Amino acid sequence: IFQNLEKAFFSYPSNRKIQELLIVQAFELGKYERVKQLSTDYVNRSQKDERIMFLIALSYYNLGEKSESRNIINWILQNSNKKNVLSKSYELLGDISATSSQKINYYKSAIDLDPQNAEALAKLGITLYEGDKTDTTDLTIARIYLTKALMYDPDNLQIKQTLSAIDRRLTRKNSLTTLLPLFIVISAIFYVVFRFGSEEDSLKRPE
């Protein structure tokens, strides 16, 4: 199919539909450099499909050209009204971002637009988990997002492994929270018993 589309596009380079089909095929085959070549002309067309533009942005991201990817995403955000495309665009902005706080904000925006975006749910959960593994609140919230992600993507091994890690960490924290007060109470009881026991023994001793 790809080779046939290449030939068709060579014969009809002004045909937008053929160009779009070729971009889709190139992307699916992982030919990101070819997508980049085709995008040079496509992004300057007066009519263009935001879904194709997203594939172009994702191709640039996969090639490590984050700045160009961000520019195309910004165009999508200004020109698209498709919630699924906008959701994936915010998700990609989260991937591009350098800080955890930026990632969290973009992933949340993606989920607001599409609550069933499993990838954004998983990425948000994992980012929260990796941010502060000592914060019980963040761990609990991360667990909620990852559990939702697993509903929509039940075979995702990374989600399952992260959930298991969170559960182990929360179990340890809950154990410490429960056992520490208990240890203090028992220690206090032993102290009182020992002290008063010693006093009683001293009172019972003959003069």
Describe this structure in words.
The longest helix has 48 residues. It contains ten helices and no strands. The protein is elongated and about 65 Å long. Helix 2 runs parallel beside helix 4, helix 5 runs antiparallel to helix 6 and helix 6 runs antiparallel to helix 7. The mean pLDDT is 87.
Protein traits:
single chain, about 210 residues, mainly alpha, Serine Threonine Protein Phosphatase 5, Tetratricopeptide repeat, elongated
Q: Quick summary of this structure?
A:
The protein is built from 10 helices and no strands.
List strands and helices in order, with pairings.
Blueprint: H1 2-11, H2 16-28, H3 32-42, H4 50-62, H5 66-79, H6 83-96, H7 100-113, H8 118-131, H9 136-152, H10 157-204
Helix pairs in contact: 1-2, 2-3, 2-4, 3-4, 4-5, 4-6, 5-6, 6-7, 7-8, 8-9, 9-10
